[in-house]
Amino acid sequence: MSLKVYNSLTRQKEVFEPITAGHVGMYVCGPTVSGESHLGHARPYITFDIIYRYLMYLGYKVRYVRNITDAGHFEEEGREAEDKISKKAVLEKLEPMELVQKYTNLFHKAMRAFNNIDPSIEPTATGHIVEQIGMIEKIIADGYAYVANGSVYFDVEKYNEDFSKKGMPYGILSGRILEDMLETTRELDNQEEKRNKADFALWKNAPPEHIMRWKSPWGEGFPGWHIECSAMSVKYLGEQFDIHGGGMDLQFPHHECEIAQSSVCNHVMPARYWLHNNMITINGRKMGKSYNNVIKFTELFSGNHPALEQAYHPMTIRFFILQTHYRSTLDFSNDALKAAEKGLKRLWEAYDNLKNLSTDNTADSADKELETKVQKLTSEFDEFMDDDFNTAKVLANIFELVPVINGIKDKHISAVALSGNIITQLQKKLKVYLEDIFGLRNEAATDDSKLDGVLQVLITMRKEAKNRKDYVTSDKIRKELESLGVMLKDEKDGNISYTLA
């Protein structure tokens, strides 16, 4: 079966055919580092990490580009368009780049906690001002942008008129119609310089008090939000690449504007496949500051938020996201997270049991019906992932295998019911899926390993004390460990073992 992906552009599943055989170029919109990332951000970055991993599993050489927006993401609320980063820097009394570094570091720390693989390239908006200016100049030269009071705006109406004839109207991705947008878009104060309400900024003139500013042919200012992704994607992936990803909330206006900008400059749709993950809601309600339900990563991991009943481990969050297809709405609740926590624990217990099953069994004594069931369940893993990355169905199959594994371990099922060959295949398949593709880590096992390491250090110290005939220190270490439930035993060969009470 060939890999099929749901293309938001065509609104249907399509067989994935990369532009260059064996190679995939993928661009995913990264965070705006004006503040700490929150629960809603976990879904796109975990989703596209799994897509990245699966593409590599299929044998593709993937160039994964995920940007950092450290300038230019402004919000037109009130009288003036305001740069989020400059605004937050003033509030926190930090230099803008100091603020950017602070929240970029927190973002990277969270990505490591989620066990996300680093992208191939992580470009920043501030590192590509020259490229953005160059692209804006080309759009102006081609007649699709205009200068007004030191700012540059994209002429949406002219673009729509010309590119509709080429089958690429403004709204092609989101399904919106320009005429409807013109009727419903509200007028903003001090936006009279725009020819059209739907026009968007490519470059903004910086007022004297604005901290982040760069020289340009139109005066000092800063780039619009949308232009950075067009400039960076073409630089690192070419005029047309394979996959453009992001959250569903970015379809409009961000990705729609990217298509318009890039199409003018390069005369081609920037990406062949547009993939969008759905949103996370909280107790059935959209996340929003007004609802006091925006949960930052640090709050999620510490439990320090009024909506949380406890802290949740990053692997629990990752597993929770995997349980639902990426295009379906995912509702967050404490009950759902606790259920995911229990499910993940049950999964790791079965996985550990599987590792300890004997692989010496011959096919002669095997239960053929059970083996057929196991082979069918595992063979469907790739089929489900090839069907638009359906992690939820893969997990459902894995949980059908759990009682089989546990049944053999607990002797409810014959120890020879599965041949050694089938058990070996199952061990390999689950390792690939749980660890390599799904990116899950058994944190309990990691913690056990750390505990063992600490105890071995103390045991070595006690052994050295005994060898020096320092029995006071030796006995003290033993008694302190016993008080913590760690029982030491001096073995005949001179080694020391321990058991946990």
UniProtKB/TrEMBL annotation:
Q: What's the domain of life for this entry? A: Bacteria
Q: Gene3D superfamilies annotated for this entry?
A: Cysteine-tRNA ligase, C-terminal anti-codon recognition domain, HUPs
Residue numbers covered by motif 'HIGH' region = 31-41
GO CC aspect terms: cytosol
Q: Which UniProt keywords apply?
A: Aminoacyl-tRNA synthetase, ATP-binding, Cytoplasm, Ligase, Metal-binding, Nucleotide-binding, Protein biosynthesis, Zinc
Q: Which residues bind Zn(2+)?
A: 29, 229, 254, 258
Subunit-level organization: Monomer.
Family indicated by similarity: Belongs to the class-I aminoacyl-tRNA synthetase family.
Name under which the protein is recorded: Cysteine--tRNA ligase
UniProt lists the gene as cysS
